[in-house]
Amino acid sequence: MPVDPQQAPAGLTDEELATLDAHWRAANYLAVGQIYLMANPLLTEPLRPEHVKPRLLGHWGTSPGLNLVHTHLNRVIKARDLDALCIWGPGHGGPAVLANSWLEGTYTETYPDITRDAQGMGRLFKQFSFPGGVPSHVAPETPGSIHEGGELGYALSHAYGAALDNPGLVVTCVIGDGEAETGPLAASWHSNKFLDPVCDGAVLPVLHLNGYKIANPTVLARLPEAELDDLLKGYGHDPIHVTGDEPAAVHRAMAAAMDTALDRIAAIQRAAREEGATERPRWPVIVLRTPKGWTGPAEVDGLPVEGTWRAHQVPLAAVRDNPEHLRQLEAWLRSYRPEELFDEHGAPRPEVLACVPLGARRLGATPHANGGLLLRELPLPPLEKYAVEVDKPGASMHEPTRVLGELLEDVMASTAGRRDFRLVGPDETASNRLQAVYAASGKAWQARTLDVDEHLDRHGRVMEILSEHTCQGWLEGYLLTGRHGLFSCYEAFVHIVDSMVNQHIKWLRTTRRLTWRAPIASLNYLLTSHVWRQDHNGFSHQDPGFVDHILNKSPEAVRVYFPPDANTLLSVADHALRSRDYVNVVVAGKQPCFDWLSMEQAKVHCARGAGVWDWAGTEDGGREPDVVLACAGDVPTQEVLAAAQLLRRHLPELAVRVVNVVDIARLMPSEEHPHGMTDFEYNGLFTADKPVIFAYHGYPWLIHRLAYRRTGHRHLHVRGYKEIGTTTTPFDMVVGNDLDRYRLVMDVIDRVPGLAVRAAAVRQRMEDVRLRHHEYIREHGVDLPEVADWSWDG
């Protein structure tokens, strides 16, 4: 709806309008200069081809709209003393955000060589999308940014994540109309059903409809206004429209829209916080319609540009070679009247900066965009409180994630006052056995409730929505603004956020090289309901490949752990929750599994990352083993120990070493990953020339890829998931993928020199059991008694 003149705040004075327009024109000038110029930044001489970059990169089309939003945010932040953050969804609008950062001074404070004068302006221009310079996106290098926007769809969920547990913060989120077409963005509109007006901040979406993507019209921009209003109202928002192409009119309308939206936000929060209102509010959203490439060339080479898809990137593409393009570029730059905006030294004139807030209120200086500055240590209790008793290996069983849930309950309770820890997941907290947390915090929920509902809480800090994208976006926004969290997910479906975590890892890798960016809490995944115990859901739920994707990424930023029991899961979780600037992937089962290590042993083993379980093998200390049985993952560990037990019984003379790997990156060379082993360490653990039978949780080729440079690689034989699955018994899953204990014994016999003949009868017995297994489960529907009732007797 347009702003009602009867209810609208007082309009801009002519002086305010002039200063806002001056700031906007200055930002537009700086944005164009970054795309095109490498010299003559103030046009103190006629523009020549050599002043123009040889490669023109960047995106103009969205920049004037972003500059408009930034200018008007400056006004309201200063006038209202707002604590504010902005998420710039059109990440290609880097020139705009960089321009505004330079104008407000935060860019010079961050990068002192980019001074706020003609020389600094020249450096600002030249470095943009230039070798050795800065990217064209709103990247980690950009002060005030927590959202790069390389891949579209996540701006709004990041904004809500930033607002959670930040009751004094207003997060504006500019959503491009191209981004608005993505599935993740569509789902994230529902975040307002989880935003608590008492304990959380506010999100003000600005849907920027400039009409076009790279080459096509955008869906929402072509909807009739009434239909778009119906859509936004259906999402629970109250739309405010700003439409136009005449700058003065748009400035007045945008100022009124901002004031109206912020007044409504203040009224919503006041009603909830002071008057006890519990009805879910309708939050405002601003719909901004301005031309794509606004104020740029109207026509180039006889074709319309401004207001069309041709304005998306570089409207004048042949400036160095085409004199007419050069003339148009100079006319375009001079249309902003730079002599009115910058003094003779190139510094912004006072009227340009009249709307800019001071200090940390500037969008480029807010500590919320450098969340490590606000981060506090998580109060993690001693692990011994939750440890399961292990008098001897394999004598008891626990559900590892249920044990972890007790730890998370206490973390949630101990952060109740400071509210800086959240657990997110797609409707699976209880399914993943973490429901103990409900004793400390319910599930965030602002929509209608029924009597049959459980654990819903208007102020809850457990977040569940059946959109992995939204969960990931919430948590990323939360972490990037200085808080802690954990993402619990079914292993097979975490793939949905493959590209999202890719963007986050790239962000972390870049920020590690920026000394002004303080480290943030790690992004922690708990992947459970995993491949080997999805026998009830079947093939569609069986995929352990997320770790393959993660281990392709920057080694300094990624960690992958396979704790084999409850105590090792506690130890790994403690480490992950304490860590900074990592993506930690922890794969652990929720079904009952054997307890192998005491808490003290688990801590040592997890710190080592990989080690010999001497109690499980049959090595004689005086000689090398004949074979190494290695394992990573809870089910592979059980199968390896069962195989070791069979070998002890049937081939007692064989020297067997059992190696368990918790930290999978330990297999990599030390030059390739910080956790990798030297060749000396690796050969000491796995030997250089003895057969290694490796039972791995996921796809077997990952182990080969990690270890391919090792001396003993040709002796390495890996068993893992081979994309064979169905609804079947738990043991049949491992048999179908040749990961079972009997197959592992057969592998030992096949690969240890001399055993093939000497142990032929043993091998045949192993094969017979596998055949009997197939017949038994088809008749009885359950696993063989010797499997179902197996226990470690070492």
From TrEMBL:
In the record, biological process GO terms are: carbohydrate metabolic process
What is this enzyme's class at the first EC digit? lyase
Domain Xylulose 5-phosphate/Fructose 6-phosphate phosphoketolase N-terminal residue range list: 12-373
Q: Which residues form the signal peptide?
A: none
Domain Xylulose 5-phosphate/Fructose 6-phosphate phosphoketolase C-terminal, by residue range, is: 590-792
Q: What is this protein called?
A: Probable phosphoketolase
Q: Mind telling me which residue stretches traverse the membrane in this protein?
A: none
Q: Give the UniProt keywords, A-Z.
A: Lyase, Thiamine pyrophosphate
Native source species: Streptomyces naganishii JCM 4654
